[in-house]
Amino acid sequence: MNAIIAKRVDSGTPDTSEIIDLARAAGYTVVGEVTQTRTEDPALGMGEGKVEELAVLTAETDVEAVIFDNRLDPYQTYNLGQKLPTGVEVIDRFTLILDIFGQRAQTRKAQLQVELAELRYELPRAEAKTSLAKREERPGFMGLGEYDESREQDIKKQISNIRDELERIEKTEEHRRQQRRESGFDLVALAGYTNAGKSTLMRQLAADLDVDENEELHPDLDSTAESEDRLFTTLGTTTRKMEARRRDVLLTDTVGFISDLPHWLVESFKSTLDQVYRADLILLVVDVSDPVEEIREKLVTSHDTLYERNEAPIVTVLNKIDKVDAEELDEKRAALSALAPNPVAVSGQDGENVDALIDRIDADLPDWKHERLVLPMTEETMSVVSWIHDNAQVNDVNYGDDDVLVDFEARPTVVEQSRSKASDLSPAAESA
Ligand SMILES: Nc1nc2c(ncn2[C@@H]2O[C@H](COP(=O)(O)OP(=O)(O)OP(=O)(O)O)[C@@H](O)[C@H]2O)c(=O)[nH]1
Ligand SMILES: [Mg+2]
Asked: Worst-scoring range by mean pLDDT, 35-44, 136-145, 231-240, 340-349?
């Protein structure tokens, strides 16, 4: 499929490298581009002359689509379609991203998320059509002929159904996370922009997949975390056991961020990112071979997104050090020191310095807590003691006449849970 890229910026020079990567990721071959620096034209987005130029180029090069790296409103999309040769699709940045997501969505959840995003994209357009047609200002707007208010209702209904189903899936996942925590796992998540190298690092950090007794507990443990030099290679979520030092760690790889995503699209994929937002520690991966300004911007945006939802410590990983020399690395490290005070620089590809990263993960995971619990002797007491054995490092158990003292160390959340289990035993239970 051939496509032409079109991009307008208010000022400065238009940079089309990212949109070209996105187009490639969606399966297009980019055969040309038309760019312009000027203020937005309300009717066409670009200036009329530029659109003429675009139409000529489109006709000459025989393309299926024109991909705009701009936000197009429904009117602009329609008007552009009228100006271009028939059969040429007008695609904007967001439909393109949705297209990629749609092609890659493999799980039920990913498919639902894509559907949700598509419907949310369509809704304001359907509303616009309805209201336009109602006022009879532009009958047959967008070639739809008779306006159909039921389409709008239909979209709303579908959105609500999908939300319900996603909610059910999320509940199951939350339950699974909870089980993992209860079995003593710390959850570490990889976050960062698409193509930063998250999946490559995942393969370095994760233990060879051992199909163990946890298999049933972790149905999404996956032996393959793909990586490819194109955007949005990973859409779903992969969780694997990590080779850590003293902790049992599960590492999760998931979808990458991308700049300038509209709110509704981010929202639609919110639950995929839940794995990141609920983690005990986040590895924020950046491609250190990017220009330093770009890294800075990506870090700022990532921090905004992550800190809004999670208090977990963030370890910044400067990845792809094999692509920069020592001097450049030092310069970038210094330039980014305010945003990433103590980053770990690695090459996920060569495995260079990955050991140091594992040490950091171990050091920065929230500390285990020491606890001494006195449990009253009831029928349930022994099951609580055995739960603590399963989930904590038990130092000592002392059986008294009518109580049991358990001395142990565990993750903060396990300590919390054991306290609440203890207090459920009887009102007399107390923390010693
Ligand atoms: N030179 C070099 N290339 C790397 C390194 N790590 C990853 N890459 C390459 O960068 C590209 C993207 O890597 P991925 O691991 O797929 O990136 P990702 O962050 O998972 O990307 P998404 O799944 O799209 O979010 C691939 O071509 C990798 O081979 C590295 O340390 N050095
Ligand atoms: Mg990936």
From this structure: 136-145
